[in-house]
Amino acid sequence: MSGQPPFSTQIKAPNQRPEHPDFWDKRFDQSVTPWDAGGVPAAFTAFVARQPRPLTTLIPGCGSAWEAAHLAATGWPVTALDFAPTAVARAREILGPVAVDLRCADFFTFTPARPCDLIYERAFLCALPRKLWADWGRRVAELLPPGGLLAGYFFICDQPKGPPFGILAEQLDELLSSHFTLVEDAPATDSLPIFAGRERWQVWRRR
Predict the structure, then answer these.
(1) How far apart are CA 5 and CA 132, in angstroms?
(2) Tens of pLDDT along 66-79?
């Protein structure tokens, strides 16, 4: 009989755990970034264009920060953050001299210098293991004042293995509906292959 315990107690290395920055550093180091669109998606561009005034914006899990560059170019105050140093270094290359407050920080403990009008979501929630979803829901509610917006793309499907981790519509509603009202919901028209057919553009307003 083997001397191994009946259940493995082995803990995965940090670069195998998506809740750890080493996981994402490894992927940026190896240029394995299938979530990186290399530009700004259409629904977000249209959303920005129709706002009557610039919105102070926070982008968690900003990756290469294409959307942050777009917002700054249109005069919006924007803070972009990622907890993976290699992602932040990549974002610095993309941003160049563009006026974005770029931070290497953890969304769950980061406090913006000024209140947010908008939190932009893309490929951040779906990068989080399910054990962090409730914390995410609480944090976006804490950071946005009444009338503030949570807008972006959500990976709506039953895909338990990830990242990307799929979330069902009813699960997302459970996370947000106690503090937010869904005001826009449409299928994404220009998804990357990794999200194709399962991504929705949504806007939630903080009550």
Answers:
(1) 29
(2) 999 999 999 999 99
